[in-house]
Every structure is written in structure tokens, then in C-alpha cells.
Amino acid sequence: MRVQFTVNKTEWSKLEKLALADGYPDVPTYCKDISLRERTYANMWKNIMDKIREMPSGSQFALKDLVQSPPSNLGVKLYNNQGKLGIKVNPQKDSSNTNTYTKI
Questions:
Q1: Could you write out the three-class secondary structure of 48-86?
Q2: Closest by CA position to 63, among listed 23, 27, 9, 100
Q3: pTM
Q4: Of 28 and 41, more confident
């Protein structure tokens, strides 16, 4: 099922600031968790950022090493936030055809 609504530029900017302040990687994820009154995604994202921050440079990992049974869209967020997280995707995937990353 899909839920959709329209916002103007000012409202979008406000949503971006709220999402960032609450530790979300993007507005849609923030809106979903707020609407459902859940905070699980933000907690997973915070754990990912904390674990990456604590890794030494050169460490290699997959998302499943950081979060048990991660939702697939969390992998997209990890991929799209490589620069912000100080990681890079490796050219080869692991044995389960999952992206792996290296901390820069």
C-alpha cells in the first residue's frame, strides 16, 4: 500500500531538518516512523552510524554485520550515504550477493 502527500518547499525543508535532527537518513523514512509512532528505523540507523564510527579504517563489512535482519531499504540508505558515513562500496559482493563496504 502507498501513502502519499504533497508539501511545498518550506514544508520539505522543515521535514528535512526534523529528520536530520532525529537521526534519520531521509524524509520518507522519518515520515513513516512518525506517522506510525515508531522509532525503530532511527534506532537502527543510529546503531549503524555508531558501529561504523567505531571501526578502524580499512575494516570491511556488510550491512547484516551491523544490524540483524535489516530491511532492504536500509541497504539503499547505507549505499546512498557512503560519503556521509566515510565508507565506500566494494566492487565485489559477498557470497549472498550483498554489497560489502570498506571504512575509509
A1: HHHHHHHCCCCCEEEHHHHCCCCCHHHHHHHHHCHHHHC
A2: 100
A3: 0.70
A4: 28
